[in-house]
Amino acid sequence: MQRGCTDEAIEAALSRLSAERYLDEWRYAEAYVASRADKGVGPLRIAAELAERRVPEAAASHALREAKVDWAALAARVRARRFGAPPDELHERAKQQRFLQGRGFDYGQIRAAFAPPADD
To answer: How far is CA 84 from the centre of its chain?
Structure first.
């Protein structure tokens, strides 16, 4: 549009790119979820970021559902990497919980992040 193309030409180009799978919102959502999870971001924040990027809700929820991520384990790793050992003080625990909430983890995932590791 900035270069003077008509709406019809733009629509035709976008349709062709979609048909050839160069533009695929579902694949983009899957890649985005994997990338953000690798950086320690939780599912609630990822969903919000995808919504900001105008990814359809169906594609976003599918990508989050199908992601090979144990969100509770990820929350535990993020907490341990940032703070080390689990806190003894209630004040410090609340601080760590707020950090994880800001990262986009839900209550159950945050709670699991403070649980002692299960022995195998």
So the answer is: 23
Which region among 18-22, 34-38, 43-47, 106-110 has the lowest average model confidence (pLDDT)?
18-22
DSSP states along 32-68: HHHHHHHTT--HHHHHHHHHHTT--HHHHHHHHHH--
CB count within 10 Å of CB 14 equals: 12
Q: Give the C-alpha separation, 71 to 40, whole Å.
A: 9
For the entire predicted model, the pTM comes to 0.81
> What single DSSP character describes residue 84?
-
Q: Quick: pLDDT tens for 76-113.
A: 999 999 999 888 899 999 999 999 999 999 999 999 99
Cα-only R_g, the chain: 19
Under a CB-based contact definition with an 8 Å cutoff, are residues 47 and 64 in contact? yes
Return the H-helix or E-strand segment holding 74: helix 71-83
Q: How many residues does the chain have?
A: 120
- Tokens describing residue 82: 């940032």
